[in-house]
Amino acid sequence: MSNEEKKRKFKVQAINDEILGKLSLKNRYNWVNNNLGNLLTKEQNAFFREVQKFCLRFEKKNKITHGPDEDIYDWVPAFGEKGYITRQHDGKCVDLDYAEYGLAMDFVRNLAIDMFDPQFAMGGGATVLAINPIYDHHDNVPVRLEALKELLTGKSPGAILITEPERGSDAVHQLTTCDEQEDGSFLLNGVKIYNTNAPRSKWVICYATAEQNNGNKMAQFLINTSWEGFHVERVNIPWVPKLYLGKETLKNVRVPKEYILGGVGKGREHLFEGLVPERICIAAMSVAEAWGALAHAGIYVNLRKQFDQEILKFQGVGFSLADYWARTTALTFGLLKFCESYDEKKEKFGGEIPKNISQAMVAGASQFKYVCTQLSKDVCYECANLMGGAGLCDNTLMYDYLNISRIQEIVGGSRQIQQYIMSMALRNLYKMSVF
Ligand SMILES: Cc1cc2nc3c(=O)[nH]c(=O)nc-3n(C[C@H](O)[C@H](O)[C@H](O)COP(=O)(O)OP(=O)(O)OC[C@H]3O[C@@H](n4cnc5c(N)ncnc54)[C@H](O)[C@@H]3O)c2cc1C
Predict the structure, then answer these.
(1) Is 237 in the pocket of ligand 1 (CB under 6 A)?
(2) pLDDT of residue 10
(3) To the nearest whole percent, how much of the chain has pLDDT over 90?
(4) Fewest Cβ atoms closer than 10 Å to its Cβ: which of 152, 220, 222, 306?
(5) Considering the entire predicted model, what is its pTM?
């Protein structure tokens, strides 16, 4: 890295040249590859390396420093062109035809991209939330397929508008209304908030209800943000300063018939059907953050000397890192198995998992979301701590990990909501098992 590039990245260099050089993305990828090589299948490994290679070249070619002045949204088209926005689907319905796809492949994609830049990966995750419902409900309607292709190929990021200022965890008692018109279109009115990517998105998925506070009257819409009556402001979230989150005011936004993905009465079902992959992707992102932090700390503590010894050799450092490394490895194994099992079931049932199986996976998705987000927060903090001042200054991605890992417990349903879902599942389990 040239001196000029370094200057853009951080105000003052705190870490010495040798260690900073060894903390390169290439070495961090190597470190994770040597951890996960045996766990991944041949195909997963090959795809993992393919995405890594792209990220390495992209970082070098564009002289990316991950410094505060960079706009992560500028990178979306290049990743979209390569088909790296999501690999949950094969892309066939919009003539893309990816060879590697499914939840497990997407986990691998996510891991490589998160290690490149965690805020960029999180923005991509929000686009995927907009992609999934269009994928499931395009019904071959041309305008929906067009939007889907634009999102998949990185022409625009996407966003999902569920949360409202007065309805967060309680997402099914919405206040944003949709009123059907004589021509079959709907007029939407209300306010949404904290919607990742919305200020930078052309397409958003929005939920509204024909009767306030009635979950049975919810509907789901695809909206072009340039339509009249759609107004968006940026909400600043200091822990992810590069992401654009929106607060949207909808004033008589007219949604034509062909953009209705789920009519009145279907919205709630559509909201719930996306929850398993959404929570698994948040879990995957959290695990990826943990690996990113572990790779930094794992390299740093082998180089940093105090009392004339590499600090890894002190039990306070080495044993602590070993503890979080073990937990991350174990959860990665578990999560990957869940993803593979989800993919197998999807394939077995012709692309759509039957409702009873999907519902049974809801508790599993909550379990992984719950433990992985906690793990990420703990691992990222501990890794930063083990790196001392070097883990807290702005010379590496560690401050990104530290901040972003604290957000994951809230997004996609808070820790307490996951506990609630799991406790209800325990009730069902009891009823199913004890006679
Ligand atoms: C960075 C970021 C990105 C986001 N991205 C999106 C997005 O793309 N799209 C979108 O629609 N939303 C998004 N959100 C919103 C997010 O999903 C909500 O913030 C979250 O669901 C919580 O809602 P709330 O903020 O209104 O908190 P509240 O629901 O008011 O919760 C406050 C506290 O009360 C607790 N609580 C609430 N109800 C219960 C209960 N029944 N039992 C126990 N505890 C309870 C919660 O766990 C929490 O600790 C994002 C939020 C953030 C911070």
Answers:
(1) yes
(2) 74
(3) 91
(4) 306
(5) 0.96
Q: What is the whole-number distance in angstroms between the Cα of residue 413 and the centre of ligand 1?
A: 6
Atom of ligand 1 minimally distant from the CA of 412: 17
**Cβ of residue 341 lying under 6 Å from some atom of ligand 1:** no
- Per-residue HEC secondary structure of the chain comes to CCHHHHHHHCCCCCCCHHHHHHCCHHHHHHHHHHHHCCCCCHHHHHHHHHHHHHHHHHHHHCCCCCCCCCCHHHHHHHHHHCCCCCCCCCCHHHCCCCCCCCHHHHHHHHHHHHHHCHHHHHHHHHHHHHHHHHHHHCCCCHHHHHHHHHHHCCCCCEEEECCECCECCCCCCCCCEEEECCCCCEEEEEEEEEEECHHHCCEEEEEEECCCCCHHHEEEEEEECCCCCEEEEEECCCCCCCCCEEEEEEEEEEECHHHEEECCCCHHHHHHHCHHHHHHHHHHHHHHHHHHHHHHHHHHHHHCEECCEEHHHCHHHHHHHHHHHHHHHHHHHHHHHHHHHHHHHHHHCCCCCCHHHHHHHHHHHHHHHHHHHHHHHHHHHHHHHHCCHHHHCCCCCHHHHHHHCCCCCCCCCCHHHHHHHHHHHHHHHHHHHCC
Residue 334 Cβ < 6 Å to ligand 1: no
Q: Which atom of ligand 1 is nearest to the CA of 420?
A: 42
Query: pLDDT for 66-84, tens place per residue?
Result: 998 999 999 999 999 999 9
Q: How far is the CA of 417 from the centre of ligand 1 (A)?
A: 9
Q: Among 72-76, 121-125, 391-395, which stretch is predicted with the lowest mean pLDDT? A: 391-395
Q: Quick one: which atom of ligand 1 is closest to the CA of 165?
A: 26
Q: In the chain, what are the domains?
A: 158-265 (2.40.110.10), 274-433 (1.20.140.10)
Atom number in ligand 1 closest to CA 169: 29
Atom 18 of ligand 1: nearest residue by CA position: 168
pLDDT digits (tens, 9 = 90+) for 200-220: 999 999 999 999 999 999 999
Tens-digit pLDDT profile for residues 160-170: 999 999 999 99
